[in-house]
Specification:
alpha/beta, about 55% helix, RNA-binding
Length: about 300
Amino acid sequence: MNVVKKRRTLLIAGPTASGKSVVALALAEKLNGEIVNADAIQVYKDLEIISARPGRHETMRAPHLLFGHIDGAVRYSVGAWLAEIGNVLQRVWSKERVAIIVGGTGLYFRALTSGLAATPAISEQVRSDARERLSNTGIHRFREEIIAFDPEITRLAVADVQRHLRAYEVFAETGIPLSVWQNTGSTGLIGSSAPRVVIEPNRETLYSAIEERFDAMMDAGALDEVKRLAARGLDRSLPVMKAVGAMELLGFLGGELNISEAIALAKRNSRRLAKRQLTWFRNQAADWPRAASSEEAVRLLAEQRYLAEWG
RNA sequence: GGAGGGGUGGGAGAGUGGCUAAAUCCAGCAGACUGUAAAUCUGCCCGCUUCGGCGUACGAUGGUUCGAAUCCAUCCCCCUCCA
């Protein structure tokens, strides 16, 4: 193993359809960099079109890492991603190349820069036990049980079933409350000095880009892609099955929606996704520099002195 | 020209005297967020607000009534059918 001298890293975040890939590619070519994915759905092999994952054109121009390497049957997670990206970054850095981390998943960036609680993996047994317990007792009793060992859980909304389940599972698995785990902060892999940018296009531009892109996805064979996914007969609760666009087209294939309803819903849900991403970055990454467009993002990053040195 | 139906908040659409600033759905906005995060959840959505309220509102105008989106009159507009 080479000794890593410089951890040259660039962070590019932004909502779906904001032009992140373009920025990443431009900088990768300029700086001899490698592009690393920070998007929770672009990791899945099964969804190239629907997830707007970089295709041949892009991957020929620069190395792309952590894209499409996970089988849809796998329940991927921030933790798994963080574990993988650690190695990936070591490899990129050891080659004296720049790691350009791009994506729209705010939580992934947070894990990267601030670390993640060191909770162990939850066994399938505990997972299903938790679900069974919940359906037997109902959310109110379930919640009280959790609060008994972890009072912090009071702050969760009662309807937030997913987070209640998580709290229950962690305690059942480890005997230590989730909130305690979460205070055992690890430090991030990426320092605060790494150049970064959030692409924040105006709402109208972004929304019309989303709609046009979805039409383009349909033309590119999105429906066939989702048909292939459907044919696998995977569990509906898997993350791949919940990807925006996939979910709606699955609804069409299952006969619950007609095609135009499915398309309209997919667009709507993409808009909502983008909105949530903007909210995240606005409030959780408030100190990151902003760019209103991909062009501005390139310019903004290129102006930073790091890049002059790195190039 | 004749007969009937209808005009409600950004859209759809309930409501037919007080419990109605007006159900519900959609669209939108804001927020939360530590292993499902493209997920999960919360609030707002006529205007103003110190978030308790205050002011205007249900095509228009006028009227009945203690009180009207709801009843009456006139006017304007839309739709269906018959000529």
